[in-house]
């Protein structure tokens, strides 16, 4: 039995008092001192882990004013607070031992768009892609481009002075900041913008902290201007934070925005920003050049910059190889064809853009002519991607590089701690040569990608941070790289801020470091705002953080038993890249996060919780692997009665951290989008089911688990009397019972379509070894074995019937595999022993049928993919044959010579694809288009997120509201938008059910559209 874990680490007294006072002052946002929220916010995309005292989610600017006013009171000078946006920092910028203040949940509104003057006003929690989606209809965008743009907040970008692709053309974030509203200590709102001399005198004579900071900044510029000019390198990336070199802008005006941008929340809370936006170039072309050597790619990039492209991005062979194994490769493979003679070990992505198509074409042609004539380095090929859509597909691969580097095999994985160095571009190749020599001297592998036009290359040395000896190399490598950046006239932190690496600031700033301390003291005299980062206040005894004194994730992870670690690798290898925080409502990644905006309900959050839970269980002496095996040995019925008899434990029997983990896991839809889309392949449904199995060794299961888990076993019997079953399910007493005791809001009804009549018309045969053995070779080639699933067989029988009729009409003989439970409901709920037994039986039956070379084909994607995914992760002796999705089989038979149906359809069809299918087998979704073309029909796959049903998730009472929110995020507006433009289709049973339930619309399956076309 798992251990009871009571409040592992409680809040300190001063923080409890502060939070009580915060409520009393009228703070309206959420305050979450629970261990789950603290655990999830203890990590970002860095190697570090710092447990905060609590997480705060301000509801509005007034909440932040209350917070900063209260924290400035003398009795609370011990309290420290740190702002957090998307949590994508690679250097621990938003990690703290105090209070995390997350501005992304509520302060995420675009307040104003001024198209004529090309500026916007936004709150700090707005995501960059969210902003650009709103600007796109106006032909505008906010630059520069980040690899984390789908989850990075504007506040986070400002606080790190973020830059990225195209920065040589577009500059850094601060180059586009026009005005800022920042809340300073004491609850004072600072409105910063470039100030002329009259305005500067006015602000400098203002009372309190507002006047104090203006006087401090002005005096620094007067007293240290010459030293500042001598000290800092003239780089595209220049400084990030406390930018002394740009106190006065190019017009001579004092601009505090250049001090605040990159300050990492150590001076104040950025709450609102007015930003400059730019016209989207009308035409773009991306040239993808391949090299046999990564160093050739670097050296060539330096020469190519003379041709003045918009940007040059470089990727090495490690990143490219990882991309080839990722979901993204399906969209970009055509641009990186394999070279038969030499492998590609580096690529450059060179973009040109403009508003004149002819001029752009001439520029590109000149560039291609240069590639043909220049022999400075060896290039092994190039391709062109033209237009926004094609280019964005290639860049999506480059953007995933940060996460992909965390998906190498084994425990030694690339780590971000020296990965945003910047040197003058002309020094880059030599700098990287020495950088690589340093890593090679320690026998370290590494991955590289970056912005060579800006002299920035992201280098991630591979270490097993659980190994103390390897972890100690962080200090050695960091010191060595810091020296190299000095040698080549560069910076250790060219793009991703300082964070924990701030210990190198005194050496870099030299005589000017005390000046930074003056700035810090003017804004934050008691060192309460994100302390330890960038600078400490002058005349204080506080110290900067040190890279080997802040706890790392590895220090906690090494406490987990190695057997357990390896068994749960899909959870524990989460590197915090935050791809699951994807803003886009039409992206399937993590619907529960999108609907709740609670980080515990994200793959990153759930992975963090399971890591910590496993660590604590192990430290409590619990062997979770042994308990799991014991649980598998019990059937669901036996375990039910055993628990009722001897081990019944109510959840109310005391607080337990396991309950917080359970709540996070229960909120998962088990859609598996994370397993397909996460660059590191964090598979929440897999470890969720394992956790549920373990949790219920201590705590009693709800009745609904047994009802749902046994569904496939009982439904064939109920289907014999569908009228009786439906009458019972629809009866008010049963509805009341299911809602109040079974945890179900409603339940799907059995279909009244006569399946027997369908089969009679189709002249089917039951698939048995004896029947199949009697077929000739030619008969087998024209046959198919249909694998039934409970949902389309019993609840959506019309779809199964139409599928059978379609197969008959295209001339194939149908053999129906006897219905056998698939086991997905058991797996989802954590009945893993029963699931394995079910999978063993089902695999054996399907294996017997597969011996005759006749394709096995399923219908519902969620059920069919279980055979190739969940089954494959069970015992080695369970070998399930391939069960094709309908479109996979249809595309295959047309490839081998089946007649193509040429009569053209007048209607246009739009597919709303099932999220599990499109994220786990992305190529199969586009196969629907191939099949429709063969039938003379046009099909478009439209972008949608999750429908919110996901099996029985949406039928459960506790999930009903979230299910509706998920539906309203993507499917409801998509149906409203597209239903007038064509015939909407959905290939998921859950999706069709959800649309009927909330949208009062009946969507057909694609096979029904194909059948209707044949019959027309």
UniProtKB/TrEMBL annotation:
Transmembrane segments: none annotated. Residues 658-690 form the 4Fe-4S ferredoxin-type domain. It holds the Pfam family FAD-oxidase_C. Its cofactor is FAD. It comes from the Bacteria. GO terms for molecular function: (R)-2-hydroxyglutarate dehydrogenase activity; 4 iron, 4 sulfur cluster binding; D-lactate dehydrogenase (cytochrome) activity; D-lactate dehydrogenase (NAD+) activity; FAD binding; metal ion binding. Residues 48-280 form the FAD-binding PCMH-type domain. Its EC number is 1.1.99.39. It catalyses: (R)-2-hydroxyglutarate + A = 2-oxoglutarate + AH2. InterPro entries: 4Fe4S_Fe-S-bd, 4Fe4S_Fe_S_CS, FAD-bd_oxidored_4_C, FAD-bd_PCMH, FAD-bd_PCMH-like_sf, FAD-bd_PCMH_sub2, FAD-linked_Oxase-like_C, Oxid_FAD_bind_N. GO terms for biological process: lactate catabolic process. Keywords: 4Fe-4S, FAD, Flavoprotein, Iron, Iron-sulfur, Metal-binding, Oxidoreductase. It is an enzyme of class 1 (oxidoreductase). In the N-terminal section; belongs to the FAD-binding oxidoreductase/transferase type 4 family. This is D-2-hydroxyglutarate dehydrogenase. The lineage of its organism: Bacteria, Pseudomonadati, Pseudomonadota, Gammaproteobacteria, Pseudomonadales.
């Amino acid at each position: 039995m798992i251990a009871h874990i009571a409040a592992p680490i409680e809040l300190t007294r001063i923080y409890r008092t502060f939070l009580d006072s915060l409520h009393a002052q009228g703070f309206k946002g959420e305050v979450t001192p629970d261990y789950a929220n603290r655990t999830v916010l203890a990590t970002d995309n860095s190697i570090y882990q710092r447990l905060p005292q609590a997480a705060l989610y301000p509801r509005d600017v007034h909440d932040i004013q209350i917070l900063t006013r209260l924290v400035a009171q003398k009795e609370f000078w011990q309290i420290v607070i740190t702002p957090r946006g998307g949590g994508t920092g690679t250097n621990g910028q938003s990690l703290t031992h105090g209070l995390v203040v997350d501005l992304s949940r509520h302060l995420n509104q675009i307040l104003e768009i001024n198209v004529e003057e090309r500026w916007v006003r936004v709150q700090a929690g707005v995501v960059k892609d969210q902003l650009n989606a709103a600007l796109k209809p106006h032909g505008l965008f906010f630059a520069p481009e980040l690899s984390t743009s789908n989850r990075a907040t504007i506040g986070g970008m400002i606080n790190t002075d973020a830059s990225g692709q195209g920065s040589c053309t577009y500059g850094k974030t601060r180059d586009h900041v026009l005005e800022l509203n920042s809340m300073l200590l004491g609850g004072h709102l600072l409105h910063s913008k470039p100030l002329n001399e009259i305005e500067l005198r006015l602000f400098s004579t203002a009372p309190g902290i507002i006047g104090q900071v203006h006087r401090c900044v002005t005096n620094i510029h007067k007293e240290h201007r010459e030293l500042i000019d001598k000290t800092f390198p003239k780089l595209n990336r220049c400084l990030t934070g406390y930018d002394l070199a740009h106190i006065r802008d190019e017009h001579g005006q004092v601009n505090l925005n250049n001090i605040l941008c990159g300050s990492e929340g150590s001076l104040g809370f950025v709450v609102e920003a007015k930003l400059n936006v730019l016209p989207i170039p009308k035409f773009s072309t991306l040239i993808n050049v391949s090299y046999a050597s990564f160093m050739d790619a670097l050296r060539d990039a330096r020469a190519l910059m003379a041709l003045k492209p918009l940007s040059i991005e470089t990727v090495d062979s490690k990143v490219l190889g990882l991309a080839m194994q990722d979901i993204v490769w399906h969209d970009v493979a055509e641009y990186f064809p394999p070279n038969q003679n030499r492998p590609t070990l580096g690529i450059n992505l060179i973009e040109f853009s403009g508003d004149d198509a002819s001029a752009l074409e001439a520029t590109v042609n000149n560039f291609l002519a240069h590639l043909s004539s220049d022999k400075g380095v060896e290039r092994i090929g190039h391709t062109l991607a033209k237009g926004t859509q094609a280019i964005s597909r290639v860049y999506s691969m480059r953007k995933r590089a940060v996460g992909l580097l965390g998906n190498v095999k084994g425990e030694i994985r690339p780590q971000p701690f020296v990965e945003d160095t910047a040197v003058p571009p002309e020094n880059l190749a030599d700098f990287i040569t020495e950088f690589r020599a340093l890593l090679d001297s320690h026998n370290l592998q590494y991955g590289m990608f970056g912005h060579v036009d800006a002299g920035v290359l992201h280098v991630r040395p591979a270490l097993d941070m659980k190994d103390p000896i390897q972890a100690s190399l962080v200090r050695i490598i960091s010191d060595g790289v810091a020296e190299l950046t000095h040698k080549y006239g560069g910076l250790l932190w060219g793009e991703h801020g300082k964070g924990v690496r701030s210990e190198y600031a005194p050496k870099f700033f030299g005589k000017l470091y005390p000046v930074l301390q003056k700035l810090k003291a003017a804004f934050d005299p008691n060192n309460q705002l994100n302390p330890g980062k960038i600078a400490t206040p002058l005349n204080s005894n506080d110290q900067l953080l040190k890279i080997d004194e802040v706890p790392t994730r590895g220090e906690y992870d090494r406490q987990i038993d190695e057997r357990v670690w390896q068994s749960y690798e899909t959870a524990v290898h989460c590197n915090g890249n935050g791809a699951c925080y994807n803003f886009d409502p039409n992206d399937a990644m993590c619907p529960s996060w999108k609907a709740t905006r609670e980080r515990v309900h994200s793959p990153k959050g759930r992975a963090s919780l399971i890591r910590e839970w496993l660590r604590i269980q192990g430290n409590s002496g619990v062997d979770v692997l042994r308990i799991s095996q014991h649980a598998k040995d019990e059937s669901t019925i036996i375990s039910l009665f055993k628990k009722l008899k001897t081990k019944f434990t109510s959840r109310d029997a005391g607080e337990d951290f396991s309950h917080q983990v359970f709540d996070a896991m229960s909120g998962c839809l088990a859609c598996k989008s994370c397993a397909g889309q996460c660059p590191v392949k964090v598979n929440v449904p897999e470890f969720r089911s394992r956790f549920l199995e373990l949790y219920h060794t201590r705590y009693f299961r709800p009745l609904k688990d047994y009802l749902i888990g046994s569904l496939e076993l009982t439904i064939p019997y109920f289907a014999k009397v569908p009228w009786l079953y439906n009458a019972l399910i629809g009866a008010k007493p049963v509805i009341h019972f299911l809602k109040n005791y079974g945890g179900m809001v409603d339940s799907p009804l059995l279909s009244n379509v006569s399946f027997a009549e369908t089969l009679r018309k189709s002249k089917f045969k039951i698939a048995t070894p004896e029947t199949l053995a009697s077929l000739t070779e030619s008969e087998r080639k024209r046959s198919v074995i249909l694998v039934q699933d409970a949902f389309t067989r019993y609840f959506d029988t019309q779809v199964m019937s139409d599928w059978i009729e379609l197969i008959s009409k295209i001339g194939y003989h149908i053999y129906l595999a006897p219905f056998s439970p698939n086991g997905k409901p058991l797996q989802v709920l954590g009945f893993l022993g029963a699931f394995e037994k079910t999978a063993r039986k089902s695999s054996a039956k399907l294996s017997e049928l597969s011996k005759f070379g006749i394709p096995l084909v399923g219908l519902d994607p969620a059920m069919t993919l279980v055979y190739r995914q969940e089954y494959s992760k069970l015992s080695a002796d369970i070998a399930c044959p391939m069960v094709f999705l309908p479109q996979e089989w249809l595309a295959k038979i047309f490839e081998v010579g089946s007649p193509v149906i040429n009569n053209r359809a007048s209607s246009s069809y739009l597919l709303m694809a099932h999220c599990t299918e499109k994220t786990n087998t992305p190529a199969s979704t586009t196969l629907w288009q191939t099949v429709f073309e063969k039938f003379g029909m046009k099909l478009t796959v439209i972008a949608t997120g999750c429908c919110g049903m996901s099996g029985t998730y949406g039928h459960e009472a506790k999930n009903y509201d979230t299910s509706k929110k998920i539906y309203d995020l993507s499917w409801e507006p998509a149906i409203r938008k597209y239903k007038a433009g064509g015939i909407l289709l959905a290939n998921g049973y859950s999706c069709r059910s959800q649309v009927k339930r909330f949208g009062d619309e009946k969507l057909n399956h694609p096979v029904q559209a194909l059948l209707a076309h044949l019959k027309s």
